[in-house]
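Posting this for the archive.
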Amino acid sequence: MKKQFITLAVAVLLAGTAFAQANDTLAKVKAAGSITMGVRDSSGALSYTLGDGKYVGYHVEICQRIIANLEKAAGKKLEVKYTPVTSQNRIPLVENGTVDIECGSTTNNEARQKQVAFAFTTYVEEVRIAVRANSGITSIGQLNGKNVATTTGTTSVQLLRKNERATGVDFKEVFGKDHADSFLLLESGRADAFVMDGQILAGNIANSKAPADFKIVGEVLNVEPIAIMFRKDDPAFKKLADDTIAGLAKSGELAKLYDKWFVQAIPPKNIKLGMPASDANKDAWKNLNDKPVEAYAKK
């Protein structure tokens, strides 16, 4: 009986240690010698793939800076593993420890803050509508009776329905499994419009076969803080991430990284998105915070 009790006690201790380590990113990655970065295949200039397992973008680079500081804290070089995530699975994969840091296009909102934690806001997004250039659609009101594409697991269509200009507008939702799939719905004519973050729309248009065939139109549906995401209840890792971003903002490097991905020509086609930093982005960099989208709506 005593032996069984000791075995049980050891098992409980080990389980407790594993649980504690799951929420201690520094201990977890130091023990593993690696860190897993959640990335997106087609989240505009924030995070996208070049193929062959290569991922680039504004948030990917910021995450790489965070990981460099994590390596200093761990006292060792870490293997960086890239795991593609979608709008549907990104939060569960962070919660269960599969992904240590998610570097995509995730909106920080109150509901998600109950499940995960966010670093300081590094990008402020405007949700817009993309259509075919010859569609004649220029506003929300013209979506009545149309098929509107959005990506499963995102909030864009809900925002469209809540917009006061959408009152009385009846449209059908069609869903893409990721942003590239949603854009394909528009590109192939299965959707008349694609509602999503403006830079994601711009990125997909820029990398399409015929960029001139599409345009972004209509009213700004919402302004959203987009941030890098990681597990809750890990204050040490959050501080490291926030301190990294604060350092980049103070040095001016954050603005330079933004310019690199949103103003200058980007791979693989060396196309410019032509999206200079908005006043909302500049304000976020000047007054660093992790406020959810609901706080922006109260302004």
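The first helix runs from residue 2 to 22. The first strand starts at residue 34 and ends at 39.
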